[in-house]
Design goal:
- By secondary structure, the chain is α+β, with helices and mostly antiparallel strands.
- The protein is 26% helix and 27% strand.
- Strands 11, 12, 14, 15, 16 and 17 form a six-stranded antiparallel sheet that branches. The protein has a five-stranded antiparallel sheet with strand order 7-6-5-8-9.
- The chain is globular, with a radius of gyration of 29 Å.
- The chain starts with a helix and ends with a strand.
- 35% of the residues are buried.
- Mean pLDDT is 91; it is low at 1-20.
């Protein structure tokens, strides 16, 4: 009986392997057919490795997945380079030039599919160099073939034009690595390359919406946003045989953007977040940028299994979930969990999970509907989520929003029979770097005035000792009748100088402000210093220098009865004169208005349902808005949960 079982088991294994090989062979043939006239180049690669089974399998992996990959072509991609180089040098690009390129639709340019143009020499060089570093470095002894194929082998990252990058990065970074570290710890190897990446300044820029930049261009010009920072890191690390991936969230639960970051596969199999522009990889103290994510996905070169059978071709499913080249890795960050919620729309096949955006909920996860309930897996806790139904393009509420916490869920079903007063001061969460603005460069700063240009015998008009509660401060000097000719703003001791607006008035109740004429020599551009007095609360002056000040001539000897001051800020506080509308979420009924108000002060008062999810819209200006609950007398955004 035991022998019979073994025979049956062996037959099953053989059949399974034949099915797998048959499936892979079919995909390979489909890729070769897709290549058209370029089929011969791909076949040269397969022939080249016919006596090397491992490299042959790697070549098959790349070719099988190649029909999905492409770059763009067009004169626009070359013409934008001088602008990027100018930005990389820190030079100011005229506003009209930026606006011109913002009108260009780069993603409508012709696509060039790899399979139709790639050469055998290009692929062979990439495969050979990738194998060389995989086999050469001792930290890869535990790195299996499948992980090698995803984390070191790929010849491209996104939709960038193809370039001969592997040898360029290999020759530079392996020389640095070999001279800096000769051990077997992948963490230390990563740090050595990371240190070299930090040596070249990265210029952050979000003005332009363009495809991924060429790998060889990024080698020389480090400019872009978090995506390009990830790209250059992947190129450098993979060229050195360090297994890395790029992960992202689709849309932030706390602000209005996606975000990308790099992760390192440790020898334990665990993925550790790092970034040369953020923090080093560490087992003992794993880093995090502190952003809330909701759901996390990893970009893959190879096709991934469908989470639900048949959804790839189902256009009623949002595009995110039809993408077979991403992988849900949320459990790596928050562990495995299961969240079951009631839904009001029980007839749909799928229910989606959304995070808020002012333009509508953004789906970040999906599951099967189960007769009025939906169960999602592996969510980040302490996030406001919304169940949705979708036709692939339009997403509608399928039930009440909820907050998932480790101890359970809190369904935000509004109780309209119980209304409470809510005092509202912001329309957007104070998140990430914005949290620092009300005190960074503010606490300890001083305003002084004098009759003397050298500020001898200066009087202290005001000193900032606490975190500011608003972005608009009206300050009253201790002696409103004393006269001065000069005034200055001083940074805190051994801290930065950072401010948005500084205005001085002779009259405390009305009248024009006193014209401020800047005096003294400064190492900073005048255009940046002018931001302090341009009347624009969003423009600002910043310097990393410490113990600095900016001084002004008032043009005459005059009393100073009022000073208006604004720190660097996001202008998402309530602004007098702007028109606002407050909504609450009412399940499948959508958003319900609680009324429109024109602000007369720097706060609004509403009567709101208990246990409601709220959304304040500025109908006058701005686009940054985020949902919140009102709890214990204050607004609580996702970042506050």
């Amino acid at each position: 009986m035991k022998s019979l079982f073994i025979i049956v088991l062996n037959i099953f294994v053989v059949i399974f392997l034949m099915a797998c090989n048959s499936s892979n062979s079919k995909r390979l043939e489909q890729a070769l057919l897709f290549a058209g006239d370029n089929r011969g180049e791909l076949e040269k690669v397969l022939t080249h490795y016919k006596n090397n089974p491992e490299k042959l399998e790697a070549a098959r992996f790349l070719i099988c997945n190649m029909p999905r990959w492409y770059g763009y072509e067009g004169w626009q991609l070359d013409s934008i380079k001088p602008v990027l180089i100018q930005k990389n040098k820190g030079e100011i690009v005229p506003k009209e030039v930026i606006e011109k390129w913002q009108r260009v639709s780069f993603y409508s340019l012709p696509k060039v599919y790899d399979a139709k143009v790639i050469t055998a020499d290009y692929l062979i060089e990439n495969i050979d160099l990738a194998f060389d570093v995989w086999k050469r470095y001792p930290w890869n002894r535990s790195l299996g073939f499948d992980d090698f194929c995803e984390l070191i082998l790929p010849y491209r990252i996104g939709d960038e034009p193809l370039s001969s990058w592997r040898k360029l990065y290999h020759d530079h970074y392996t020389a640095i690595l070999d001279s800096a570290y000769r051990g077997n710890d992948v963490i230390e190897a990563c740090k050595a390359v990371d240190k070299e990446l930090k040596r070249v300044y990265y210029r952050w820029d979000t003005d332009l919406n363009i495809p991924h930049q060429r790998a060889d261009f990024l080698f020389y010009y480090r400019v872009g946003f978090c995506r390009e920072a990830c790209d250059v890191t992947l190129y450098a690390m993979r060229a050195c045989g360090i297994p890395v991936a790029c992960e992202h969230f689709v849309y932030s639960p706390e602000y209005q953007h996606p975000h990308f970051w790099t992760t390192l596969r440790d020898t334990t199999g665990k993925f550790i977040q790092f970034g040369f522009n953020e923090f080093e990889a560490s087992r003992i103290n794993p880093g995090s940028d502190g952003r809330k994510r909701g759901k996390v996905y990893r970009y893959c070169f190879g096709v991934q299994e469908e989470p639900f059978s048949g959804i790839t071709k189902d256009e009623k499913v949002p595009a995110l979930f039809r993408n077979r080249f991403i992988k849900d890795v949320t459990a790596n960050y928050y562990g495995e969990n299961k969240v079951s919620i009631p839904v009001q729309s029980g007839s749909e096949e799928y229910v989606y999970l959304g995070v808020f955006s002012p333009g509508g909920w953004i789906p970040v996860d999906m599951t099967h509907s189960n007769k009025g309930n939906a169960t999602f897996r592996n969510l980040e806790p302490n996030i406001i989520y919304q169940p949705l139904i979708s036709d692939g393009q339009n997403h509608r509420a399928a039930g009440y929003p909820f907050i998932y916490m480790r101890e359970g869920i809190s369904v935000l079903k509004p109780d309209t029979s119980h209304l409470k007063k809510a005092v509202i001061k912001r329309k957007m969460s104070l998140c990430s770097g914005y949290k620092n603005f009300p005190h960074r460069g503010i606490i300890g700063s001083r305003i002084e005035a004098s009759l003397n240009r050298d500020f001898s015998n200066a009087d202290l008009l005001y000193q900032f000792n606490d975190t500011l509660r608003t972005n608009y401060c009206e300050l009253t000097p201790p002696d409103k009748n004393k006269k001065y000719r000069y005034i200055r703003f001083l940074s805190p001791p051994d801290n930065i100088l950072e401010l948005a607006e500084f205005t001085v008035f002779e009259n405390s109740t009305h009248g024009e402000s006193i014209k401020l004429n800047r005096i003294g020599d400064y190492p900073w551009p005048s255009s940046k210093l002018d931001n302090i007095t341009d009347g624009d609360i969003l423009s600002y002056f910043y310097t990393g220098d410490t113990s600095c000040f900016v001084a002004y001539d008032l043009g005459k000897v005059t009393p100073i009865r009022k000073i208006v001051f604004s720190p660097r800020n996001d202008d998402n506080y309530i602004w007098p004169g702007d028109e606002y509308e407050l909504f609450y979420q009412d399940g499948i009924n959508g958003w319900k208005s609680l009324g429109i108000q024109t602000a007369t002060r720097r706060e609004l008062e509403y009567r709101v349902p208990d246990n409601a999810l709220l959304w304040l819209r500025n109908r006058t200006k701005g686009r940054e808005e985020q949902v919140f609950i009102y709890k214990e007398g204050r607004q609580c955004f996702t970042v506050d949960i």
